[in-house]
Write a sequence for this structure.
C-alpha cells in the first residue's frame, strides 16, 4: 500500500489485497476502511473501475460482513449489462447464495436461469458447469429431482479439467440425485469419481471416501462393520449402526449429538436423530428432533415428506391426531421411505391390515441387486414391520 500510493491503478489493487487479508483475519473495521479507500480511488477513474470495485468488495465482504456484501450486489444489479461475462457470473453466484440463505427459492431459480444463459452464451466450460451446479441445487430444493439430476450430470461432464472443488461438488450432486432415483450404479460411479477428483484436500477426500464406503456397504460390496461418524461424515451415518442391527449404537450417537449441541439446527442430522429415536420407541425425543428438522427444512425440500411422515408416526404413538396430508415426495427413494413411516403410523393407529398391505408393496424395492438389507429403506421397513407384526 505504501509503495503504490502515488500510482492510482496500482494503489487500488494494493488496498484490495490488504482488505482481503484483513477480512481473512476477521478484521471487519479494517476491511471496511480499506474498501472505502478502494471505492474512493475507483470513483476517480470512471464507472467501469467503480463497478469492478463494488464486485471485488462484495466478494471480500461475504465472509466478514454478509449484509454489506449483499448491499454491494444490490448496487451492481442495475449495471449488470456493463460488466464482463466473468464478473456477471460472479455477481450471479453471490446473489444466488444470498437468496438461498433467505430461502427465496423463486429468486434463486430466476437468477440461476439467467446465469446459465450467460454461461452458455459467453462463458467457458467451467463457468457453465458452475451454473449448472447452482441451478441443479435450486431445482433440488424446489422438489424438481429429475431436473436437478439432469443439471448434475451436465455439470459433472463439463467440470472435467476444471477446479477440483467444482468437479467434487458436481460428482457429489450427481450421486445424491442418483440415489434418490434408486439408480445405485450411477451413484456408485459418481462417488468413485468424487474420490478421484477430490485432489489433495484431506477433508474433502476423506468425506468422499466415507460416502463411497457407505454406499458400497449398502450394495453389499464392502465390510459391514461399524461406520465412521464425525464432522466430515455424511449425516446418514447416524443411521448406519441401526441399519446393521445395532440400534443401541445409533441411539448412543444421536444422544451424543444432542448433548454436544453442535448441530442443533441441522435439518439432516436432526431428521436422522428422529428416525433413530422413533425406532427405539423414544417418541418424545423423536418428535422434538423432527420438529427441529422441519423448522430448518424449506417447504419445497424433496426430503420434507419423509420428515412429515416421521412426525406423524411420533404423534400417533403419543395418541395425538395427525393433520398433515400424506405427501410422499418427488423421488422414488423418498416416496418409499415416507410410505414406510406412514405404515408405521397406521400400525400405531391400530390399522394393522393397512400397514401390512403397504409394507408388502414396498418390500419389492428390496429385490434390487443394488438395494440390500443394509440400506436406509430396509431399516425403515423393519421398524414399520415390527410395529405391524410385533417384535
Amino acid at each position: 500500500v505504501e509503495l503504490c500510493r502515488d500510482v492510482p491503478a496500482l494503489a487500488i489493487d494494493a488496498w484490495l489485497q490488504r482488505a482481503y487479508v484483513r477480512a481473512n483475519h476477521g478484521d471487519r473495521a479494517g476491511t471496511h476502511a480499506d474498501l472505502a479507500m478502494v471505492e474512493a480511488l475507483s470513483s476517480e477513474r470512471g464507472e467501469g473501475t467503480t463497478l469492478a470495485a463494488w464486485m471485488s468488495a462484495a466478494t471480500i465482504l461475504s465472509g466478514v460482513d454478509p449484509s454489506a456484501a449483499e448491499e454491494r450486489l444490490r448496487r451492481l444489479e442495475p449495471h449488470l449489462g456493463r460488466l464482463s461475462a466473468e464478473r456477471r457470473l460472479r455477481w450471479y453466484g453471490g446473489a444466488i447464495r444470498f437468496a438461498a440463505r433467505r430461502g427465496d427459492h423463486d429468486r434463486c431459480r430466476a437468477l440461476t436461469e439467467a446465469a446459465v444463459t450467460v454461461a452458455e452464451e459467453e462463458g467457458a466450460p467451467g463457468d457453465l458447469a458452475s451454473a449448472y451446479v447452482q441451478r441443479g441445487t435450486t431445482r433440488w430444493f424446489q422438489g424438481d429431482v429429475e431436473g436437478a439430476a439432469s443439471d448434475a450430470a451436465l455439470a459433472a461432464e463439463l467440470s472435467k479439467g476444471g477446479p477440483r472443488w467444482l468437479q467434487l461438488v458436481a460428482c457429489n450432486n450427481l450421486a445424491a440425485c442418483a440415489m434418490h432415483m434408486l439408480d445405485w450404479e450411477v451413484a456408485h460411479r459418481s462417488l468413485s469419481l468424487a474420490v478421484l477428483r477430490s485432489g489433495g484436500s484431506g477433508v474433502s477426500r476423506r468425506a468422499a471416501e466415507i460416502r463411497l464406503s457407505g454406499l458400497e456397504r449398502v450394495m453389499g460390496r464392502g465390510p459391514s462393520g461399524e461406520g465412521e461418524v464425525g464432522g466430515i461424515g455424511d449425516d446418514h451415518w447416524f443411521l448406519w449402526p441401526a441399519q446393521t442391527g445395532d440400534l443401541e449404537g445409533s441411539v448412543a450417537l444421536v444422544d451424543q449429538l444432542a448433548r454436544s449441541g453442535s448441530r442443533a439446527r441441522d435439518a439432516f442430522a436432526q431428521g436422522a436423530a428422529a428416525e433413530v429415536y422413533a425406532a427405539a420407541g423414544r417418541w418424545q425425543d423423536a418428535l422434538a428432533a423432527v420438529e427441529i428438522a422441519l423448522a430448518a427444512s424449506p417447504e419445497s425440500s424433496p426430503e420434507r415428506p419423509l420428515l412429515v411422515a416421521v412426525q406423524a408416526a411420533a404423534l400417533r404413538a403419543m395418541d395425538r391426531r395427525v393433520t398433515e396430508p400424506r405427501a410422499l415426495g418427488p423421488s422414488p427413494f423418498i416416496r418409499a421411505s415416507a410410505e414406510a413411516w406412514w405404515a408405521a403410523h397406521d400400525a400405531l393407529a391400530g390399522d394393522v391390515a393397512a400397514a401390512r398391505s403397504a409394507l408388502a408393496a414396498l418390500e419389492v424395492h428390496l429385490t434390487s441387486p443394488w438395494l440390500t438389507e443394509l440400506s436406509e429403506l430396509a431399516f425403515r421397513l423393519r421398524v414399520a414391520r415390527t410395529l405391524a407384526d410385533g417384535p
The radius of gyration is 24 Å. Residues 228-391 form a domain with the Serine Threonine Protein Phosphatase 5, Tetratricopeptide repeat fold (CATH 1.25.40).
